[in-house]
Amino acid sequence: MIETSPFATPDLVPFAMSYALLAMLPGPNFAVVAQAGLTSCRNTALAAAIGIALGASLLSGVIAGSAGALPLGPTGARLATVLYGVFLLGLGARAIDRAIRPATELGRQTRLPATGYFRLAFITATANPASALFFTSSALAAKTSAQGSSLVVFLVAAVWFGLVGLALSASACRAFYARYRRYADMALGAALAAMGIAAIF
């Protein structure tokens, strides 16, 4: 019997794409990194990004390792797939709703050292309910391995939130994002909705 690597499963490709879109949506993880980038230096923003990546990968691994072991028949697997699609549709609706609403002003935030932002980001990512629901529904529907999903989550989160932290620490990028945020949220919402419909049908 030939053993296959848990990192080579094709289920990780749609999982990586879906999680990348989830990570791009403004939420608690995004808010922590944005706060670090807007109120402190680049090193602090990168520390927050690594904290998010480690926390999210830990959460993904724990959920995939437990949920993936649950015995599901054809009916249960189908229900999990529908749940996954509905969840993506909900995320898409949230992004589109955010694009329609007027932008809110950022409040004045208290600066924290790099280690403080790292701890805050790690705790935020491990306690993120949206991520937990996404990892649970994805693990039940696609049977992704704990090792593979954790690695994918860490790489996607580290790259995306690292770029966010670096970008938002520059004044020119802050102005650009404030101007075009609505269009980016609309595009992300449409993409998530399309993936949700595809998963359901």
From TrEMBL:
Q: Which UniProt keywords apply?
A: Cell membrane, Membrane, Transmembrane, Transmembrane helix
**Cellular component terms (Gene Ontology):** plasma membrane
Task: State whether keyword Transmembrane applies.
Answer: yes
State the Pfam families in the record.
Answer: LysE
Localization, UniProt = Cell membrane
Q: What InterPro entries does the record point to? A: LeuE-type
GO MF terms listed in the record are: amino acid transmembrane transporter activity
Q: Membrane-spanning residues where?
A: 12-33, 45-70, 76-96, 117-139, 151-171
- What is its membrane topology? Multi-pass membrane protein
Coiled-coil regions, chain positions: none
By what name is this protein known? LysE family transporter
